[in-house]
Amino acid sequence: MSTITPQELNLLIEQTYKVEKEFNELKASYVHLQDTVEKIVEFLPNAIWILDEEGNIFLQNSLSKSLGELFALLELKNDDYEVTFNSKAYLIKSSSYKDKLMLSATDITEQKRKENLATMGQMAAHLSHEIRNPIGSISLLSSTLKKRVLPENVAIVEEIQKSVCRIERIIKATLMFSKGVHAHKVPFMWSELQDALNMAVGYYGYTKDITFIFPQQKFILNADKDLLEMLFSNFLTNAIDAIELDDNEDGSVQILYEKDDKFHKFYIYDSGVMIENEKELFEAFKSTKVKGNGLGLVLSRQIAEAHGGSVELLSGDRKGFEIKLGV
Asked: How far is CA 42 from the centre of its chain?
């Protein structure tokens, strides 16, 4: 039996240390690689599941962990498809490599919403164009009829005119939503806009005794008067509708005004019923009231933004909105 010399033993020990060092380096590289892969998967904006050959989850990110119930609905196939879960739409993609299968779920709810809005906007614009001509004829004929009917029938014709006016407002809002808001600014006095708002309120029609309180200050606005008339009319008519639904026999609508270096600020309050479902308040084609078409507040916000401002719902016990317009 041969014996190992001291030199051979030292060499064997050195080789053992060398193998152990290489193994530790390889292990550290693997751990680093695994950590890198996990960080990459975690960094991705969509939910990721990586499955082994038996269909068990091999790796996933935190977003996929929060969608565990969604994973149970997924089909293990290579085709891309959409699935709805908890009122949200997800695009499911899959790819395979050797014995691993990767599934990803991307939230496309907002994208689908925008596509639906675009489709609805196009349809509404088309219908508005079709309705515009006959409504114009009705408006013209009702004006002629008002001059010829018996005095006791004038009120009936006026109701027809008010209804036509409301339809015209809806058509105008729909067409503006489909084309976009563009402001053509010129200076004018607030009193000019107030006169137009008083006329719009008179045409709207309501049954209760409503007091309208407008700003008494004299000031100039550098803005698009027609657009601001639409903006404020939307809030006034919404206030009228809310008061009509209230149990009281009367009500009030108040507009307060103040100004700083950057903005004209208007605060609109009314005594009508409170707003339901505030989350849908500025959603197109989603109305918080029975008679609404879901465009009034959306357009009002867009008009304010076209004037360098904003529209916000005020918090607190008193129901109201803040409207900012750039100076």
From this structure: 28
Q: Which fold has domain 183-327?
A: Heat Shock Protein 90 (3.30.565)
Does the model's pTM come out above 0.70?
no
Of residues 224, 210, 128, 208, the one with CA closest to residue 169 = 128
Q: For the domain covering 109-180, report its CATH number.
A: 1.10.287
Q: Give the integer Cα–Cα distance in Å for 238 and 246.
A: 13
Three-state secondary structure call for residue 281:
coil
Question: Residue 292: pLDDT above 60?
Answer: no
Task: Yes or no: say if 230 and 306 are a contact pair by the CB < 8 Å rule.
Answer: no
Select from 243, 300, 316 the least CA-distant residue to 266: 300
Fold match between domain 109-180 and domain 183-327: no
Cβ contact 268:255 at 8 Å: yes
Domain locations in the chain?
Answer: 6-108, 109-180, 183-327
- Characterize the bridge pairing of strands 310-313 and 263-270: unpaired
Q: What is the DSSP letter of 284?
A: T
What tens digit of pLDDT does each residue of 161-198 get? Answer: 878 877 877 777 777 776 778 899 999 999 999 999 99
Q: Is 189:214 a contact under the CB 8 Å cutoff? A: no
| Residue 103 per-residue DSSP state | E
Crossing angle between the packed helical segments 296-306 and 154-179, to the nearest 10 degrees? 60
Q: Say which DSSP state 98 is in.
A: T
How much is the pLDDT for 51?
Answer: 87
| CATH classification number, 6-108, choose in 3.40.1350, 3.30.1490, 3.30.1340, 3.30.450 | 3.30.450
H or E element, residue 212: strand 209-213
Q: Under a CB-based contact definition with an 8 Å cutoff, are residues 245 and 276 in contact?
A: no
Per residue in 97-135, pLDDT tens? 778 888 899 898 888 877 776 776 677 676 777 777 888
Lowest mean pLDDT among 26-30, 64-68, 208-212: 26-30
